[in-house]
Write the structure tokens for this entry.
Amino acid sequence: MSFKENLKAKIKLDRLFQSLLSTTREPPGKRWLDKELTKELLAMTDFEHKKARGLHLYIRPLEGEIMEVAVLDNELPIYHTTVDDVTLRKSPYWQQMFSIRNVRKIMNDHDVIASKGKESLKRLYDSALALLDLSYTRDDLALLLEDARRGMEQRSISQIQESLSFFFDLLHFQPVSLDVLGPSVQSFAGPKLNGGPVPSFEHLVLLDEEKLWLGLKRGAFSPQEDSDLAWVMQCARGEKKADLQGTEVFEFLAELVPVKAQLR
């Protein structure tokens, strides 16, 4: 796949993982897992599906006969053992219950369990992420920038949003909540680690989806500074010009992206 396709897959993977983390329930309450979303996550890994004794198993080899086996149930346990051992522990035949050794295995899985619940989701996320080639060059960034320019020229909100998502992911920009903005205006910024008690960001980006307007404020920005909020309101009303607008925003973001061997 191209860098753009891999980056798009990473963004999808990140959103899927965050959705699963936010909906998964763990003790002290009753465990619950969105199995359909988990299937989507598993489909992005190199685990292979196998059904055995009514269990939905996802398997990949580790060493010799030892497999990494994920069981798709509300616990989402991941075992490092054989498939037969997992089926014994999770869905034993009644005849197998006459063995004290088997009963001990069923009652205690500490010797083979690798993770459960959200920890298992993180393992699966890491497995899927490892399959993506996220290395890139300036040529790859130039292609992303060209797509962004085309989106602005064609006034395509879907293309603009996708292009922003690519650069935001590369630069670790996050949504910024600003109550002074209307529902059609989204705001994003990069983290600025200043160690102070007041949250501060860098390079605020505003996107008005109704007007198809894109603007950027260079430098530091804090949602708790009255002067910064006044700037935002004036820009949103068209009373003040942003430091950069339209395609200029994408060109600026592209210059901020460092060329490195691997996206983290």
Notes: Residues 260-264 have pLDDT under 50 and may be disordered. The first helix runs from residue 3 to 23. The chain has two domains: 3-130, 138-256. The CA atoms of residues 89 and 106 lie 5 Å apart.
